Amino acid sequence: MPYRITKPGGLLTLLLLSALLPRAGAQTTLPDTVPIRVDLRDEMGPLDPIWAWWGYDEPNYTYMKDGKKLLTEIAQLSKVPVYVRAHSLLVTGEGTYGLKWGSTNAYTEDENGNPVYDWTLVDSIFDTYVERGMKPFAQIGFMPEALSSKPDPYRHYWTPGASYEEIFTGWAYPPNDYEKWAELIYQWVTHCVERYGREEVESWYWEVWNEPNIGYWRGTTEEYIKLYDYSADAVKRALPTARIGGPETTGPGWDEAATFLRTFLDHTLTGTNYATGETGSPLDFITFHAKGNPKVVDGIVQMNMGAQLNDIDQGFEIVASYPELKDLPIIIGESDPEGCAACSEADYPHNAYRNGTMYAAYTAASFARKYDLAREHGVNLLGAVTWGFEFEEQPWYAGFRDMATNGVDKPVLNTFRMFGMMAPTRVAVDQEPLHYDARMIVEGSVREETDDVNALASKGDGSATVLVWNYHDNDELDVPATPVRVELSGFTEDGPALLTHYRIDQAHSNSYTLFKEMGKPQPPSAKQIAALEAAGQLDLYGSPEWVEVRNGRVTVELVLPRQGISLLRWEMN
After folding, report:
1. Residue 208 belongs to a domain with what CATH number?
2. Among 420, 452, 477, where does a domain finish?
3. What is the pLDDT of residue 29?
4. How many domains does the chain have?
5. 439: CATH
6. What pLDDT score was predicted for residue 22?
7. Band (6; pLDDT cuts 50, 70, 90)
8. Tens digit of pLDDT for each residue in 80-119?
9. Hey, is 62 helix, strand or coil?
10. How does residue 435 score in pLDDT terms, banded at 50, 70 and 90?
11. What whole-number distance in Å separates Cα of residue 72 and Cα of residue 63?
């Protein structure tokens, strides 16, 4: 069938299937049809919303115009409360902000060295979440200037292209007084309970610091463990039922990070607590990060999903090796295609994947494999934080890792809209012959000639959903689209079912395509912005239609271009 997209302003564009095939002279034979078989009786347990977690470096963007708009959209796409993690919640400064920088002035000292607490800006951040039904994944960090053991220089002024080491200034150092630090945390949690109520704060997650095995922590491993002990004790004294965790290391696929994670976990079980003198330390959940590693090869961006999944695989393996900890929730505190959200495409060409559908398809394919790896290791995966928000005062589509640009949604946000529409119980997907699975991607990423065409499926009361993607590490769109046949069985009754088909590709749910057609205006006009906003929403692929379920079965044929995603949803009367 042809692709049909209606653009704002009444312009109707028809893109025939031939437009998705290679240029003249290239191979134009369609690949073989890929069968996707789903038996709704083959239940795998809850499809937990591990995707409903977001984070970002710049906390002050939270309560700015575009920040509030995006947070509203993120909250609305999810059936469950979304958790939000932000850096720099305790950094000194009068709300100053910049790339990879933010401040709240929560803690200063008077001329006699007495603490002065000011929760005004932290409250503005948390209020913005709570007002939208979201919840803080509250990061305890970074070091206030008055408590830093090396405060000068304190603020950085990093810009894309500069050395990353410029970031790690006075805020990254251990405290000069652990008792004052602990009292700060105690007062903060106490204030939150008074402001938001005990029951609300009990539903949050508190974590200590960020990536303490690299420059974000200018102390030793033991000094981080000491910081954790004092922080956890302070949180529990203020609210014994609060949930506290860590250590938010970088990816455990890196040996040094894996060693740090194990050292931390060993301490929580058998170490001497620096704050209390008792054995062990409170640990209600475990956190680490996972990142891919794209690069430019022969003039095109080549992703490395295998690197990200390897971090996750190694982290799960470490947690599973501790019988006492295996059932604890795991939160992948940052889970992304690469490591620097604030590194724009202009300075880092390998980040050119971010504006278009590659980021969207990568997200669909990678999240499905996170579920699979957790199941393989038998661990409790609670969440995987997407470290991508929005950036203020930047050019349109500058290639930052964000969900929206200047208030206009990018294709990747529509992948999360699809996740939010999935039914609650996961069911198995049978694909023969198998092209890729989680283990194959860990070992070799998605580099074969064949694309990764697969699906994530679920069912609810009288409904079924199948999310189908066509992904490849190489950002080459000038390749044949793939025919897909989705075969569902196991419906409990026959009769009509309403089929709704949503699509992300070059012509659907894609504001970037329209921006390029406009000539990449900087900035767009008011009329153009309205058109871009409409194009950034999730598109239907044709009108909903009634299909007949016979003998508990139904089949749908579709053609999916590379880096395209379809969400199919059936609803019975």
Report:
1. 3.20.20.80
2. 420
3. 64
4. 2
5. 2.60.40.1500
6. 38
7. very low
8. 999 999 999 999 999 999 999 999 999 999 999 999 999 9
9. helix
10. confident
11. 11
Q: Are 396 and 515 in contact (CB under 8 A)?
A: yes
> How far apart are alpha carbons 258 and 252 in whole angstroms?
4
The crossing angle, in degrees rounded to 10, of helices 255-270 and 305-320 is 20
Residues taking part in catalysis? 211
Whether residue 438 is found in the same domain as residue 351: no
The model carries a pTM of 0.94
Are 160 and 259 in a shared domain?
yes
Domain residues for 333? 48-420
Instruction: Tell me which DSSP letter residue 79 carries.
Output: S
| Single-letter amino acid, residue 507 | A
316, pLDDT greater than 90 = yes
Q: What percent of the chain has pLDDT over 70?
A: 95
Is the same domain home to 338 and 434?
no
* DSSP annotation string for 106-153: -EEE-TTS-EEE--HHHHHHHHHHHHTT-EEEEEE----GGGBSS-SS
Largest CA distance in the chain: 80
338 and 456 share one domain = no
What are the tens digits of pLDDT across the range 502-532? 999 999 999 999 999 999 999 999 999 999 9
Token output for 543: 């009108």
* Residue where a domain terminates, one of 381, 398, 420: 420
Residues 344, 247: one domain? yes
Decide: 321 and 293 in contact? Cβ < 8 Å. Answer: no
